[in-house]
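Example 3.
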Amino acid sequence: MERKAAIVGWAQSPIVERDERIHKTEMIGRTVQAALDKSGLSIGDIDTVISASCDTMDGASISNVFVVESMGGFMKEESKVEEDGAYAALYAYLRLLTGHHKTALIVAHGRVDTPPQFYSWMMTDPFLLRPLGVEMVSAFALQANSYLSRYNLDERPAAKVVVKNRANGVRNPNTQVRIPISEAEVLKSPVLASPIKLADASPRSEAACALILANGDLARKITPNPVWIEGVGYNHDLYYLGHRDLARPESLARAARMAYAQAGIRNPRKETDFAEVYEPFSFSELMICEGLGLAEAGEGRKLVEKGIANLDGAYPVNASGGALCGNPIFVAGLLRMVEAARQLTGQAGEYQIKKDIRRGLVHATSGFCLQSNIVYVLGRDEAKPKPVQARKQVKDKVKKTGKAAKKAASRKPVRKKKAGRK
Amino acid sequence: MDSNQYRVLEGNISVPYRWTPGDIYGRFLGGLKEKKILGFRCPECKKVYAPATDICTACYYGFKPEDQVELPDAGVVKSFTVVRANLWPPKPDPEVVAKAIAPTKLEDHPLLWPPAPPYALVSVKIEGADTEFIHMVKGERNLGKLKVGSKVKAVWAEQREGYLLDLDHFEVA
């Protein structure tokens, strides 16, 4: 089992539909500062910063260049991914594994500066898909129908996914849609692109999220409750929708197998306790659970029909409410890591899973129709989570050497601590 | 800060591009101009790709012009979605759109903006091909009959220029 690096801190801005009172840099800066405060670190303690943001949504080439100040990436080894923040976390994790860095900050921001349809339309190639107006909703709808017809299913299991996630979302103060919904209401909601109805789709959302990773020795000094990366797997399928099997995403199964091999897992349903998955649409969650091996192919419905995936079920899926309650683009996958960390450290409040949990799965996806997938196995120490002590600076615990030590010691935090967001 | 004390900037990014399809995609698109659906057969695994792709994804074989095969302009629907809601903001000034997102040669193409609903996106297995072709089915009569397993036939545009929408849509046979 890999236990070379751990999540030691995190923060998010509450997910909202749109906030025009704030600059994206402010949103990012406050979130990063909150994550540093939570872990008792200052920006000088961070060795490398990896961000995730979307050039099309921001309307800027290399959209990280003008947010490096607010995310504390200046005068550091900074880089970005043009994918979900969960992939930025992979990049950061791999940097820690090289031994060149001991701490990494991952920052993702997603703002609806342009309608998300444009962003996803621009993800298509100009020759074969763009002339057809293919974007997220219609592409995932085509996939949903492939899935339903392959396994001869109707739309009710997906409606049950919405009911479950929306019920969980009511308990999550950081999510956007906090209104429960009934199965009948889901089935009656207006059709966007069959079989996807309005209630099957995630909302338009904005948020920023920051996560701090530290390597093994340091992680224990920073927090009494490190959340270990026990395994990570990632895989990428073909681009063109007609050249791959939409009903059963192969890249997801491969990503899961890779993560399980690292974590020494043979039966994920028995050897892990819960999952946080990135489901852009209700139908996706069924397919993702199957791809993760939590259910047989075509039988993901059993998880919702039998209440297994409920908050109080035997294997909760998206206890946070998932992306169906808030889907900030390029942030939603990283938020799944944060939500899993909250669960494993007993900090999920109203939506804390009651049964004893030690290990959870995190899934995130990128591209059309689950083209690219990443799966993490996250685990806590065997002992029960320890109560979180009063936040204090742990600079003295972070041993630096030579010039870096002097530099870090002399550098003041870039921001004064702000009052809590309202 | 009160949000009416400053201006929220609105903008359109108009960036011209010229995208070239190259040899293999170019042959496929050129075939559409001649009302033909061309596939590419991998000499190693015999898999037939329609639409075109540069490489056989099973063998990582790079297709050559001689791998081209002519296929019927008909096939079977493997999946579809009927788009009912208008997912798009209103179509802006055509000049702005043409400059922003489309090849300049196609400035006055009716589908510079995504098609207006209702229409269906379909995944069609062309007869003789091993892959599926993503395209459209249009017209309420066709949409009403559309099922997984429906046989469909190409409806060709009057004016063709070596572009995907030379094949205007598929109709349900």
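The CA atoms of residues 156 and 167 of chain B lie 5 Å apart. Chain B has one domain: 11-172.
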